[in-house]
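Collaboration report, partner site 2.

Our partner group contributed sequences for two proteins of shared interest, and the home lab folded both. The records are reproduced in the order in which they were received, starting with the first partner submission.
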Amino acid sequence: MGDTGNSPDFVDGVRAEWARTYPQVDTSPIEVIGRITRIGSQALHQLDRALSPTGVTRVEFEILCALARADRPLRASEVTAVTMTSGASTTKHADRLAKVGLLERLPFERDGRVVLLHLTETGRALVDSELPRRVERDRRLLDGLDDRERETLAALLRRVSRNAEATTGP
């Protein structure tokens, strides 16, 4: 029989510690946000380890993935928007990716000051190789959930995600 979700985990321990230290504070949001954060950190750590042999960082891989999903070359500002990195970071990583032949810079016909980023065949091959592995690691994180549970979890997290995107203050 699979885990029913009742076994204590790391977040339960953290929440118990906070309850002892600050008993007057309702720490129930940690039940969800703490787990989202921890799962995200673990998934990103796994991705970092998996990408290490390729010589590409996680941020660089996200840039390559943004270009692979696009149906056209993208402006650096568009890549910045979808990867949630700074413009300076996008430029720095794009420069390195261009040097190693994973993307190329193309002139924008309507404005010579604008440069478009385009995935090279080598960059596409890297994404083609690594993306299925990433999806499989993510799939393993969801082991024990049936299709209905996964759909419910996705719908609930979508609502939380919208709240996060709508929040502008601290």
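Second partner submission, folded after the first:
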Amino acid sequence: MDLVLIVEILGLALLALVVLVIVMVTVRRSRLARSGAVSVSWRFDVSRAGHGWVLGQGRFDGPNLLLYRSFSPLPMPARRLSRERLTLGERRCPAGTEADLLPVGSVIITCTDGGTPFELAVSEQVSTGVLSWLESLPPSSPAHRRGSLRRRD
């Protein structure tokens, strides 16, 4: 085979792969939007200020908040936060370069998931939704009896 033909075939295969990934990401994001997903960013490495933010969508699914990466073709969530283990903490405005990385009007909420600290960046409306979702935990649940669903201020 001619070297030029091999390069052309490899180039076309690479182009087809890129187009396939773009289509998969677009279809996934569209399905999430139709299912009521909200824009949310998160970071689990809170040791470095302003670094490690992941852009994505969050979808409430019963007792879980499912976090999906924006630019991943995978259909499964990147993180699953349990309502029983999630505690909301202080709120703050984006600082430094975070204002450039996060959506306009984001508020950052310091949280813990079973003792693991992380941060969520959401709009004011989504922040209210997350708090309502947390407070809707049934009174008979262990987390409700422990009082762990209250905000730490």
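Feedback sent to the partner group on the second submission included the following. The first strand starts at residue 38 and ends at 43. The domain at 35-146 is CATH 2.30.29.30 (PH-domain like).
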